[in-house]
Design brief:
There is one protein chain. The protein has 29 helices and 22 strands. The chain is an alpha/beta fold. It folds into three domains: about 280 residues, 2-enoyl-CoA Hydratase, Chain A, domain 1 (Alpha-Beta Complex); about 180 residues, 3-Layer(aba) Sandwich (Rossmann fold), CATH 3.40.50.720; about 210 residues, N-(1-d-carboxylethyl)-l-norvaline Dehydrogenase, domain 2, CATH 1.10.1040. The strands form five sheets. Strands 15-14-13-16-17-18-19-20 form an eight-stranded mixed sheet, with helices on both faces. It starts with a strand and ends in a 12-residue tail after the last helix. The mean pLDDT is about 95.
Length: about 725
């Protein structure tokens, strides 16, 4: 008997062993979905009912075993909760029929198995994976605001023990096969596909009557059952750690704890029902929908070149010229060479260029020490970086990234020097965080090929690149810059030109609003803690130190007089108070914080003298809202003014560039998260209550959206 459909292939060999080969021909990869699992369980039941079949091997016909659940389905905002829950319960019922069907099923894992893919493997009685560093196994659902809902949350502790299971479930751990074997997630390894199938079939022959651990009354949970001292301590510790890490912003982690806590004390079928109900709650939560929309679908869309103008031939960058070998230029050189490009790293001296190249060597040495690279691979990468002080060395480069200091006069000089030798049809990208591209393009005799390309530091770790379109920038330049950005494995958003663009302009409001709150009397310790509690990576004072107070002053001083708003002047004055006494930020070891050489940073005790604390001046809610509302409002202004081209770009940029809390969906989706009417009401209240109320003025277009009961995602240029 042989079956082949859009989801899988089914065959039986001469020894009576059936093989289900998952091959979803209409999808880019194998996905766990209602349609798939219904097809799979129907075929599995045929195998169980067939007296000639001794057991079933489950494997994949694709490069990946199974990538996970179909997040496109789970992102559907109109999904009916009761219908969805019933669908999940039916899946559990069908899977349990396979587990208790008295025929052995073996998962022959020949590729990545994550999320629903790993849960499919758990439905089998035995799991064998190819021992390859390319394979990852685990449950990453918590990273997108979900929990494993196909049995993984309830079953994992039986295999791995409570502590190991919680590490995988709460953190979304993705393990290589040897670690997964050690942790109990899989049962065996194979060194080749041939050995994998041999071992799978042999296990079936040797184990004709298998029983799952959760159905075996004699099974002992590794490390101790729930009511053992270790089990209780583990759960209590996990509750404390989850509360500390998530501050209640990510409900999925709380749901995981509840499923494990409740599920280990009752029969597995009841535990799976509990899992299904919490999984449904997670799927229906606004946090999960936000994370999936921005953190998964938004990123995937950007990686596919959504921002690229259509109809423009691909621009292949084989050789890139980088002007300026400081920290930014050095990082750009590394990621470009890592992508296989030849790099010319130029500075005013070869010595400075070589120092910039040494940044790549430090990264590679660290990778070698952790067995993530080899000396041969490192040497090959370094050989692609040519250092020079000669402008002529960049003459044959396909793409230029200018990364010199934020000084228009210096950039003017470098642009003219470079264009004198560069091919006329080559693209020139300037890395700047605030200076308008149209202004810098006046130095160019080919403004149509001149574009902004804003990297974030450290370049080797930060995923976003903000591409800025000047007044005369051509579609060819945009397409070429998107192509280059994707080639170096970065995520692009394209924005229109205005001082500060999108990311720097909106990120600065987090820093300034934090400073204003401190100036008004909020305890700096309380301020920094609340910022982290609402989901920002660090507090506004700490991140201002990282950027450098003196740099912030320099940016303000570069503004034309008409752009020096009262808010900007106020922030400048606060920074100047510290810079005038030698506290410039982390770069010189003292700013809002002190940075001892052999200790942790701590807030400078002298802040209370410069900015006296007023006890209980504002509630935690007011402080939280001022920090997040301010960023969201400025982001909306960027959308309203046409700096941002879409809500999706604003959300993605805010999350990836400066760490706006992902559970909100991003700085623009945050308005919906709070509720548009509530957001407007809060801002109008702040406008009346606090100094410099002009910064809280709501654009008329946002009021119009709210009046019509619209979502921020309904924004169009008609508003």
């Amino acid at each position: 008997m042989s079956i082949k459909n859009d989801f899988l292939e089914y065959d039986i060999d001469a020894a009576g062993i059936a093989t289900i080969t998952i091959n979803q021909v209409n999808e880019p990869t194998n996905l766990f979905s209602f349609d798939f699992i219904n097809t799979y369980t129907d075929i599995a039941q045929k195998a169980i009912a067939d007296g000639e079949v001794k057991g079933v091997v489950v494997t994949s016909g694709r490069r990946m075993f199974m990538a996970g659940g179909d997040l496109r389905l789970l992102a559907n905002p109109n999904m009916d909760a009761e219908v969805f829950l019933n669908g999940v319960l039916q899946i559990h019922h069908k899977i349990r029929a396979i587990e208790t069907g008295e025929k052995p099923f073996v998962a022959a894992i020949n590729g990545v198995a994550l999320g629903g893919g790993m849960e499919l493997c758990l439905t089998c009685h035995h799991r064998i994976a190819i021992n390859s560093h390319k394979i990852k196994l685990g449950f990453p659902e918590s990273k997108v605001g979900l929990l494993p809902g196909g049995g993984g949350t309830a079953k994992a502790p039986y295999l791995m023990g409570i502590q190991n299971a919680l590490m995988y479930l709460l953190r979304g751990t993705e393990a290589r096969p040897p670690k997964a074997l050690k942790d109990g997630l899989i049962d065996d390894l194979a060194e080749s596909e041939e050995e994998l199938l041999q071992k799978a079939k042999q296990w079936i022959l040797d184990n004709p009557n298998p029983v799952q651990p959760w159905d075996n009354k004699k099974h002992k949970i590794p490390g101790g059952a729930f009511w053992t001292p270790i089990g209780v301590q583990t759960i209590i510790g996990a509750v404390g750690n989850v509360t500390k890490m998530t501050h209640g912003n990510y409900p999925a982690q709380q749901y995981i704890l509840k499923v494990v806590h409740d599920g280990l004390q009752i029969p597995i079928d009841r535990a799976l029902e509990i899992e299904a109900r919490y999984f449904t709650k997670a799927v229906m939560s606004k946090e999960a929908k936000n994370i999936i929309r921005t953190g998964f679908l938004g990123i995937q869309s950007a990686k596919k070149g959504k921002a690229r103008p259509q109809g423009i031939p691909n621009y292949n960058v084989k050789k890139v010229g980088i002007l300026g070998a400081g920290m930014m230029g050095a990082g750009i050189a590394y990621v470009s060479a890592k992508a296989g490009m030849d790099v010319v790293l130029k500075d005013v001296s070869v010595e400075k260029a070589e120092f910039g190249k040494s940044y790549s060597k430090k990264i590679l040495d660290k990778a070698i020490s952790k067995n993530r690279s080899t000396p041969e691979k490192a040497e090959a990468l370094l050989s692609r970086i040519q250092t020079t002080d000669d402008p002529n060395a960049i003459a044959d480069c396909d793409y230029i990234v200018e990364a010199v200091f934020e000084d228009p006069n210096l950039k003017d000089k470098v642009t003219k020097e470079t264009e004198a030798v560069l091919g006329h049809d080559r693209i020139y990208g300037t890395n700047t965080s605030t200076i308008p591209i149209t202004e810098l393009a006046r130095s160019s005799n080919r403004p149509e090929n001149f574009i902004g390309i804003h990297f974030f530091s450290p370049v080797d770790k930060m995923p976003l690149v903000e591409i800025i379109v000047g007044e005369k920038t051509s579609d060819k330049a945009i397409a070429a810059t998107v192509d280059y950005t994707l080639a170096i494995k970065k995520i692009p958003i394209v924005v229109n030109d205005k001082r500060g663009f999108f990311t720097s302009r909106c990120f600065s409001t987090f820093c300034s609003e934090g400073s204003f709150l401190m100036e008004e009397g909020v305890n700096p310790i309380m301020l920094e803690n609340i910022a982290r509690k609402i989901g920002m990576p660090v507090g506004p004072l700490a991140v201002t130190d990282e950027v450098s107070l003196s740099l912030g002053m320099h940016v303000f001083e570069s503004f034309p007089e008409e752009m020096r708003t009262d808010d900007a002047k106020r922030f400048y004055t606060i920074e100047k108070k510290l810079v005038d006494i030698g506290r410039e930020g982390r770069k010189n070891g003292k700013g809002f914080y002190d940075y001892p050489e052999n200790g942790k940073k701590k807030l400078w005790s002298g802040l209370k003298d410069l900015f006296p604390v007023k006890k209980d001046i504002y509630s935690e809610e007011i402080i939280s809202k001022r920090l997040l509302h301010r960023q969201a409002l400025e982001s909306y202004r960027c959308l309203d003014e046409g700096v941002l081209r879409s809500v999706a770009d604003g959300d993605l940029g805010s999350v990836l560039a400066w760490g706006f809390p992902i559970y909100t969906g991003g700085a623009l989706s945050y308005i919906d998260y709070v509720g548009m009417q509530q957001f407007i009401s809060d801002c109008e209240d702040f406008q009346q209550r606090f100094e410099g109320g002009e910064r809280w003025i709501i654009p008329e277009s946002l009021k119009a959206l709210a009046k019509e009961g619209k979502s921020i995602h309904d924004f169009s240029t008609s508003y």
